[in-house]
Amino acid sequence: MTDQSIRESIAALDGMLFVDGAFRAGQGARLPVQNPATGEIIGHIAAATAAEVEAAVQAARRAFRPWAAELPKARATLLHRLGDLIAADADAMARIMTAEQGKPVNEARGEILKLAEACHFYAEEATRVLGEIIPNDQPGFQSLVTREPVGVVGAITPWNYPAELVGWKLCASLAAGCTIVIKPAEITPFTALAIAAKCAAAGIPAGVVNVLTGKGSQVGQALVEHPQVDKIAFTGSSAVGLHIQQSCPQVKRLSLELGGNCPLIVTASADVAAAVKGAARRSFRNCGQICIAINRIYVHRSVYGAFLAGLGKAAEGLRVANGLTDPAADLGAMASAEPLAKTRAHLADALERGARLIAGGSAPEGAEYANGHFFRPTVVADCTHDMLVMREETFGPLVGVAPYDDLAEATLLANDTPYGLASYVYARDLTEIATLSAGLDYGNVAINNVDAGIMNAPYGGRKQSGVGYEHGREGLLEYFNFKHVRLHHGVGA
Ligand code: TAP
Fold it and tell me: What is this structure's pTM?
């Protein structure tokens, strides 16, 4: 059972929307939210009605001009305050996240603290929004390029990182002077509502931040179609991202952070023990439900056996448990039945096509796992390029491994999917490192580490993994329009 304190925190958010600076009971149909480790219903969301969507967009519209006119320093002060409030309540917020998403509490707390870090980063960036003066080829003229906030942002987010993926859009919007209407994933709404409570406590003006719950196909789509939403900031699957792009009835700014099928290449010169450690972390953290999870691994034949033995042992050594009762578990429950079913389907496909099971392959046994969406970290070897695990995003605790002889061929295979989000390399030879960092067609290439994203560098995908960036200066620029002011002052003419 979910403990009393979490039930009380969730009860305060149950069926609520956050519109125009206040929580209000939603009037739409109530949909249950489950704890994926136990199947217990922990609360409900109210699916926002058309009138409630309208109220939120109009609140954001009214708040936009005054918020954009605030001095950057004032917006930065509020963002710093928001970061402090979130960090101070990280334990309680983490437990809400675990109850709805399944990741172990310690991991959830880390995510909440990274959200707080994002608040502070964007607070600092808010005060460093610069412009340019461009030389003209006629005397007496000057061109000024300034940056102005795009307006009302509709943020649509997935369930795998319920705090950070809301937070990156929220913080960048607030720093730029935009207002925002957030539609979190249907299965992880309470983390977003808890963030809204912190926005209110921080004193962020009414209407600047709004949170609407409900189904993506209705509430999310209503934001996409709304003529007064100026930009959609979306993180989710490539299929829904494409649908949003194609169904948007007006010209609108879009940033789309989409799916991946991320490769790791382990070369002959690699530190194999380090590669094993990195692969185990990035294949199985958050049960592989990460857009930048390592989905497939190409290993030079000379180190293939050693790598496989190491990864199999590492995978079998990871502890799977209910993340609320075992906060330090390595893997909690998967977030819902859907990614678990896809993981099983990719595993069955690989085994049918001749892959060799090295570790995992089934749900853990025991009464404590009986009602939850658990799966053991799973490694399959001798994979071929026709297997789903080597071509499509699994989004589960399954990784496929294949040997290679020729680095050029490994690079070709690594690039041969519709995705281009993140790729990984373990190598010590400088020529191999230089060849791979240039040759991998990905927005992020991590070499001898598996943390592809940091707060102050741009993070984005290529091909079907998306358009636009989050993080870094580039991430903030997504929330601005440029304005060119051509001034004839006559001096020097
Ligand atoms: P999706 O099914 O695409 O859902 C993402 C969000 O879109 C949810 O809030 C969903 O609402 C909403 N949505 C669904 N249909 C919509 C529509 N027609 N119009 C507007 N919104 C709609 O993704 P998911 O399963 O939650 O998340 C997993 C995916 O996200 C993976 O592919 C993963 O790679 C990707 N992801 C990418 C990144 C980056 S940075 N590239 C980071 C994390 C995750 P409901 O929940 O109500 O359906």
Answer: 0.97
